[in-house]
Amino acid sequence: MTQSVTALKERTGAAAPAETRGKTSIADGVVAKIAGMAAREVPGIHSLGAGMARAVGAMRGRVAGGGGGVTRGVKVEVGERQAAVDLDIVVEYGVPIVDVAADARSHVISAVERMTGLEVVEVNIAVGDVHLPGDEEETGPDEGRVR
User: Fold this and answer.
1) 2-15 pLDDT, tens per residue?
2) How far, in Å, CA of 133 to CA of 131, rounded?
3) Is 5 helix (H, G, I), strand (E, B) or coil?
4) Which residues on adjacent β-strands are paired with residue 89?
C-alpha cells in the first residue's frame, strides 16, 4: 500500500475563519481503514479480500505485528479533494449480491466523505467468493488435528 499523504487545501489569510487556516493531510491508509471498517458493517458481507489475498492476510494475522486485517481487500487512490475505493468482498450465500454491493457502496461513500471531507468519486466492488453455510475458516498448516 502506498504511504502517500494528501493535503486538503483550505483558505488562508486574516479574513478567513480560524478553522480554515492551514491544511489537513490525510494518508491513504486512513481512507483505506475507514472504507474497510464501513464495508465490514454491511449485512451480507462475510469478509474482505479474495482468494490468495485472504489466505496471505490470514497468515499475516497469525504473525505478531502482522496486522493489515482492516485494510485487507481494500485499495484506495487519494487525491487532493477526491478519493476512489476498490473493494474485494466475499458475500454470504443467499444474499442478493447486487443489493449487498449497493449497500456497501453507499455505506463506504458516506463514511469516507463524512470522516475525511473528501469526495468519493467511485467505489468499485469485486465479488471474489461466496461463503457457504458450514464452511469453516481457512486453517493454516500449523493447525493440526492434535494439540
Assistant:
1) 566 666 666 666 77
2) 7
3) strand
4) 48, 127
